[in-house]
Design brief:
This protein is an alpha/beta fold. It is built from 9 helices and 14 strands.
């Protein structure tokens, strides 16, 4: 028969063990740590809260896949990739596909973000460029430093010196400053984030998209994905998330999220 002191010690140990258990609400599934860079309107912080198209899509998809919760962490892009590659983060998102990443990660096959790159110019500067880049010979263009831009006609135009000169930029802000200071004639940028920045800065009456025959000249289509660390995921989980994203595309909630941010 336990003495009073023995019972007290036993109950104290039990209480301590209970305190050490994770406090998870019954309605919540496991939590995943996600890493990416700040890139509005896809993903950014507002009043210290994660917001954006990719944030909302991932939250809904993970909820549908199994009531999973997601903690969003923002880093410089190389750091975000490193953390996921080495299993220190569960997933990376807004990630392009390449063979190197497939060695250590599992892609959700459903496209997360469709990045569409176009050319931007000063609204008062009227000119047109063809899809083969005829008309670009006397134009100075700015491109983002370190970007590859695929292997299509735009990449070929850069490699074949179809522009009068090429300048380099490290951010949308820098590209816009180059343009408005007449240092360049146009710059290439991901359409939605650049338009988001232009609207945020009140520059809609100063900057326009280069067109050909009335249509936007699309330089590059670049799909991005959710990429899970193999150390922190299973093929079954990837399949669940993929099916959840496809269901969102079928019921219209996926496009609804994009339209909500595009209209802001």
């Amino acid at each position: 028969m336990l003495t009073f002191l023995t019972r007290a010690i036993f109950l104290s140990l039990i209480y301590s063990l209970v305190l050490l258990l994770p406090r998870v609400q019954a309605s919540d599934g496991p939590a995943f740590n996600a890493s990416t860079l700040i890139y509005p309107p896809y993903q950014y912080l507002e009043n210290e809260e994660p917001k954006g198209i990719a944030i909302d899509i991932i939250q809904e998809a993970m909820k549908r896949a199994g009531s999973y919760r997601v903690n969003f962490n923002f880093y410089p892009w190389k750091r975000a990739v490193y953390l996921t590659e080495h299993g220190q983060s569960d997933l990376l998102f807004n990630a392009g596909k390449n063979r190197a990443r497939q060695k250590w990660g599992r892609y959700v096959q459903s496209v997360l973000i469709e990045q569409r790159y176009v050319l931007f110019k000063r609204k008062q500067h009227v000119f047109s460029i063809s899809p083969e880049y005829a008309g670009s010979e006397d134009k100075v263009i700015s491109v983002r430093r370190g970007y590859l831009y695929g292997d299509g006609l735009f990449r070929q135009a850069l490699d074949n010196h179809r522009f009068s000169a090429v300048s380099y930029s490290d951010s949308t802000k820098q590209s816009v400053d180059q343009l408005l200071n007449h240092r360049i004639d146009m710059f290439v940028g991901d359409q939605l984030p650049v338009l988001f920045y232009i609207k945020e800065q009140g520059l809609e009456d100063q900057i326009d998209i280069v067109r050909h025959g009335g249509e936007k000249l699309e330089v590059l289509y670049w799909p991005t994905y959710i990429l899970f660390s193999k150390e922190r995921s299973t093929p079954e989980l990837i399949d669940k998330v993929n099916k959840a994203m496809e269901s969102m595309k079928l019921d219209g909630s996926f496009d609804g999220i994009i339209k909500r941010y595009a209209s802001q």
